[in-house]
Amino acid sequence: MLDAIGVGSVQEIFDSQIPAPVRLGRALDLPAGLPEQDVYEHLRELARRNVSAEDELCFLGAGMYDHYVPALVDMLLERSEFLTPYTPYQPEISQGGLQVMYEYQTAISELTGLAVSNASVYEGPSAVASAGYMAKLHNGRSRFVASAGLHPHSLATLRTYAHGFGAEVVEVPLRDGLTDIDAWSGAIDGDTGAVFFAQPNFYGLVEDAPALSAAAKAAGLGEGAPGSGGSGGGPAGQAPPVVIAQVDPITLGLLAPPGECGVDVAVGEGQSLGNRLDYGGPSFGFFAAREEFLRRMPGRIAGETRDVDGRRGFVLTLQTREQHIRRAKATSNICTSQALNALAGVVYLSWLGRRGFAELGRLLLARTHYARNALVALEGVEALHPLSRPAVREFALRLDADVAAVRERCAAQGVNPGADLHALTGREEDRGGLLVAITERRTRAHIDRLADVLGAAVAAERQGQAVGAS
Amino acid sequence: MQREAAVTIFERGAPGRRAFQCPALDVPEVDPGELLPAHLLRAAPPRLPEVSEPELVRHYVRLSKRNFDLDSGFYPLGSCTMKHNPRLHERVAALPGHARLHPLQDPPRAQGALELMYNLQQALAEISGLPHVSLQPSAGSHGELAGVLLTRAYHEDRGETRHRILTPDTAHGTNPATVTMAGFEVLALATNAEGGIDMDDLRAKADEDIACLMLTNPNTLGLFDPNIAEIAEIVHGVGATLYYDGANLNAVMGLSRPGDMGFDIVHFNLHKSFTQPHGGGGPGSGPIAVSERIAPYLPMPIVVRREAEGAQSNGKASAGAAAPIFDLDHGRGLMEARVGSRSIGRLRGFQGNYGCFVRAYAYICSLGAEGLKDASETAVLNANYLLARLRNETHPPLAEYLPLAYGKLCLHEFVLSGGPMKRELGLKTLDLAKRLLDHGFHPPTVYFPLLVDEALMVEPTETETRETLDAFAEAIAAILREAAEDPEIARGAPYTTPVRRLDEVAAAKNPVIRQAL
Fold first, then answer.
1. pLDDT band at residue A237, thresholds of 50, 70 and 90?
2. How many domains does chain A have?
3. Is A92 helix (H, G, I), strand (E, B) or coil?
4. Which chain A residues are within 8 Å of B464, Cβ to Cβ?
5. Are A200 and A207 in contact (CB under 8 A)?
């Protein structure tokens, strides 16, 4: 090979290309390579030092959930034909991947009730931030109003992005666990380019999405929402702010689709749909919108067309939005997204099917209801928000004891009772808060066990506190 | 590959068919209508497919057979580093201790994951020559966004407002797109006759309004910029940062480090240099490494190692008293992060694409220091061999029809111009690419970089054999010989694929992006 090139050594190639002062000139300070089985053992040892949802009874959620991933998802994702190609730049030999995108877009549109979906973005919180950028491109306004009911990671990510492209984020507080509609309307004015809320919100509660959307549009137009103190209002004829909702897709068999709730853009975390936890990723973000946003959407979009013989086929379409064509004028910088994870999503939705998806939603609702009632009945445990506010798969408690200590006691019993709310949000009102998530893997027996363990842990901590105080 | 007519999953099945059996309702049933007002409830279930498991499996397996993939054939897609994906990585990533670990598991009970991330941070720091790493970004473009936002934070912290960022005209499209998205203006730099940055242009444009220069080195022509030291000096001289697009890192691992070249920020594409499978367009992962002066602004959290003092026994962890403890550093706490921390904040949820970290880490463990260097050397050898093989072909004289756009040798990839081929044989680069499909090869990246007429960007990677490279060169020669006889054949290609050339104009003009249900 060197003869063909006309050099005496590979070294010679590097000598001709890279100036000596920037050559490393020493070996990297990394361990020597290992045979496959040694690497396997090392990675297995690291895995063993994690307590996964396989090892304990896990009620953690707060954005990612321990749902069952069917075996056929694993099997299909490991197929070389899905696992190893890249972005379908050559559609003639990428019909499989392109059709998967098209099917995925169909499923997301159907779930959200919105006309257009892209083929995936990275994950949930950055999808929220990307929707903000799209809104800025859409109406040029640089003031965002966001409900405190958004996931704290979504709020933080939105702020990070918005600081870059020059938008301000105004946070609207909750009242009894739901977005305070008066504060919401009051915060939205004619300069507001986009508003954001979550459904269900971060605390698991179902927002009155149609009311939030309507209030946003009215306040943005200066009409003021019914019963609101909204006093803003933009110039006559100005479009209202873009209404963006972060939605938990697993609830969409039960809850009204965002498209029917006045939402313009629905985004969210797709992990619940056939993706494993993976300590937080990779999963996928979904991004769906009304038709008018189609040409400002970020990311890949597959479209249907015909080949020269009239055969049905699929291509990447509307690429003039994208970075590799439009460069500085692109609607987003996203290139590689989450094709394989989106495949898991559409396979999972097809596996659940039309009936199964609705059944699963009702099962989660019933078990969530059961768990919430069982846990608030415990001594020293109460609902963080009024029980009249419905939860469909996750809910917040307040413990009359140190949350970290209670969680440690539960962990010793093999139960992870949920997430420490204050640690996640930093909000004073979340002190003592525990966010408990239910999936179809958590049976009644598991919930009963959680009640026993949590009840005992809270009692023990309270006793300890009482002893300490006396 | 499958050539049957396309039928979507929504067009299969029949009402009532299903694969999923819902777990038994073991708690009292709840009527959603009693819990929620009607306007918050879905009136009719979403019209998802109704198929049995055998139908579902068959549908997607057949679909898979309408894809070309790296395990089936050569995939020299320039700037994408389509190297072999070892299957060990899938096995270890699927271990329940990794795959079913919740991202909010308490650090004491996620020590394996945190140690893995810490080790990966350390390895990436060593490979890049930049000491501080954040694994958070989700892909290369996300890493770029992180880098430009870090640049913004750096200047703002110094009380400076800068508006423009330099990108060479050879840059990946993500660079200028990122600049705009992060609120800066793009100022393009010209390329000189040797394929590097036009130094006069750089000197003319570098001023106090420049926030950053984003550079790929080796660049998208596969060429290392010999003036890199001077470039760094000029950029730093006006107080700007120097950003390294790591898409082409596969050329220089263990041989040359961005940090030593003077870069302040680098992103890695774990799905390129570090064998995360490309997945048909993701998942990717785009960690960043930065110099000391940029470190205060890094996104949080970062994995840190603390020396244990009387470490308590945690869950299953069998750590002895002296074992170090790995933790997530959220910076100065969440509340402080909002009002005054210098961190740019979060770029996404949780800790990043951990599943990709597992694979990249397994790869680094397998190869070690020598293996990584060997990978880059072999990638460069393969690219130069393929380049030579094409140049030395006399029947037809490929060097005339498909000349190398710049330089004589290359690093891990090279760019040919199809201009002469188009003029003399009537064959466009697109036609050559489409005819390669009939020969069982994935074509190179085409029509990029934009400054090369009818560009073909070829990156063979280190995991291809000499026989494969020879066969690819022979296929190109055969296509050009065929075109000399009858160019119509290639112009009508491909013929053997599941579909033939598709009408992309019609698709964009009247977008049909979902199935009518």
1. low
2. 2
3. helix
4. none
5. yes
Residue B372, chain A, CB below 8 Å: the answer is yes
Q: Same structural domain for residues A318 and A406?
A: no
Sorted by sequence, the CB contacts under 8 Å of residue B44 that are 6+ apart come out as none
pLDDT at B70 over 90: yes
Q: A157 vs B345: CB contact, 8 Å cut-off?
A: yes
Q: Select from B172, B184, B165, B164 the least CA-distant residue to B79.
A: B172
Residue B253 per-residue DSSP state: T
A366 and B CB contact within 8 Å: yes
Nearest to B316 among A48, A319, A349 (CB): A48
Residues B245-266, mean pLDDT to the nearest whole number: 98
Restricting to A residues 86-145, those with a Cβ less than 8 Å away from any Cβ of B are: 86-97, 99-100, 102-103, 105-107, 109-111, 115-117, 119-120, 122-126, 133
* Residue from the list A28, A63, A72 with its beta carbon closest to the beta carbon of B53: A72
Per-residue pLDDT reduced to its tens digit, A288-335: 999 999 999 999 999 999 999 999 999 999 998 999 889 999 999 999
Give the structural domain span for A298. Answer: 73-347
A360 lies in the same domain as A450: yes
**What phi and psi values does residue B133 have, to the nearest 5 degrees?**
-125, 140
* pLDDT tens for each residue of B460-478: 999 999 999 999 999 999 9
Residues of B in contact with A446 (CB under 8 A): none
Specify the pTM: 0.96
Q: Determine contact: B90 vs chain A, CB below 8 A.
A: yes
Q: Where in chain B is the domain with CATH 3.90.1150.10?
A: 370-504
In three-state form (DSSP H/G/I as H, E/B as E, the rest C), the secondary structure along B154-220 is HHHHCCCCCCEEEEECCCCCHHHHHHHHCCCEEEEECECCCCCECHHHHHHHCCCCEEEEEECCCCC
pLDDT of residue A465: 81
Nearest chain A residue (CA) to B355: A278
CA distance B420 to chain A (A): 23
Contact A85 B75 (CB under 8 A): yes
Please write the tens of the pLDDT for every residue from A369-412.
Answer: 999 999 999 999 999 999 999 999 999 999 999 999 999 999 99
Last residue within a domain, chosen from A328, A347, A366: A347
Q: Which of A45, A109, A284 is nearest residue B514 as measured by Cβ atoms?
A: A109
* Residues B293-334: tens digit of each pLDDT: 999 999 989 999 998 765 444 444 444 456 789 999 887 544
Q: What pLDDT digit, counting tens, does each position of A189-200 carry?
A: 999 999 999 999
Amino acid (1-letter code) at residue A155: L
- Please give the class, per CATH, of domain B370-504: alpha beta
A429: contact with B, CB 8 A cutoff: no
Amino acid at B217: N
Residue intervals of chain B classified under CATH 3.40.640.10 are 120-305+333-353
ipTM of predicted assembly, 2 dp: 0.96
SS3 B269: coil
Whether residue A5 lies inside any domain: the answer is no
Domain end, chosen from A296, A317, A347, is at: A347
Fold of B120-305+333-353: Aspartate Aminotransferase; domain 2 (3.40.640)
